[in-house]
Write a structure and sequence with these properties.
Distance between the termini: 14 Å
Low-confidence stretches: 1-23
Order of helices and strands: HHHHHHHHHHH
Number of helices: 11
CATH topology of the largest domain: Cytochrome Bc1 Complex, Chain D, domain 2
Bound molecules: heme C
Shape: globular
Length: about 190
């Protein structure tokens, strides 16, 4: 607990200077994203995923997927269509370098326990890495917005978001199991 508090205080102290000193072209490009994803990639509404601290490779691939139409969303697709490949690279670089803050979602300890168990049995960390912090094309999912995680897992399960990897992984999960996983992941 003591360690956790120390880490939190450190993150808070860093947040301001990090924001101030990344005043480059990449930050300017991110202006059009800020309305939904937050200036530093920590989205203020839980309807939008946070991008801060996400892996660069994954961010780049997802922007491209929205641009090319292999991933679709009525709010996000129009934002991606106008971006060049260089923009996508710069934005991925910028957001991956920002610090992700802790989730403030209300969670239930019993559900977190259940989610942890399901994640362990399904061996999610093989790809998502210990603590779900992600690596290259495997996204970070720890601390992500709770409603967003629920939506993505259901989208994978129901085929609204297509992934040869995630589709089969979640195809037999119930809504309650998905809820438990999302509470666990957001709490990390
Ligand atoms: C009008 C709101 C809006 C704007 C503006 C917007 N986005 Fe998004 N973005 C969304 C929503 C909503 C999603 C989640 C879509 C879904 O449910 O699949 C999303 C998803 C994403 C994802 C995928 C995240 C993940 O974890 O898979 C990336 C990357 C992203 N946006 C980048 C950007 C960038 C870069 C910009 C600016 C050029 C931008 N977005 C502008 C609403 C927006
Ligand atoms: C074999 C590797 C692998 C395993 C195992 C795996 N994942 Fe994934 N996961 C991925 C990949 C790759 C993606 C990105 C899919 C894409 O490109 O759309 C992903 C995407 C996700 C996303 C969406 C992230 C975002 O920001 O939109 C969530 C949430 C997620 N996984 C949770 C889980 C959970 C929970 C488990 C265990 C039940 C799991 N994953 C097991 C590889 C894996």
């Amino acid at each position: 607990m003591k360690l956790k508090l120390k880490v939190l205080a450190g993150a808070a102290a860093l947040a301001l200077p990090v924001f101030l000193f990344t005043g480059t072209a990449d930050a300017a490009k991110s202006d059009s994203c800020a309305h939904c994803h937050g200036t530093d990639g920590n989205s203020t509404s839980s309807a939008y995923p946070s991008l801060a601290g996400q892996t660069r490779e994954y961010l780049y691939r997802q922007i491209k997927a929205f641009k090319e139409g292999t991933r679709k969303n009525s709010m996000m697709s129009p934002a991606a269509v106008v971006l060049s490949d260089q923009d996508a690279q710069d934005l991925a670089e910028y957001f991956s370098g920002q610090t992700l803050v802790r989730s403030t979602a209300k969670t239930d300890p019993a559900m977190i326990d259940q989610g942890k168990k399901i994640a362990f049995e399904a061996q999610c960390v093989i790809c998502h890495q210990p603590n779900f912090k992600g690596l290259n094309e495997f996204p970070r999912v720890s601390r992500q917005k709770y409603p967003y995680i629920v939506k993505q897992l259901k989208d994978f399960r129901d085929g609204a978001r297509v992934s040869d990897i995630m589709g089969p992984t979640v195809k037999n999960l119930t809504d309650e199991q998905i809820d438990a996983l999302a509470q666990y992941l957001t709490s990390l």
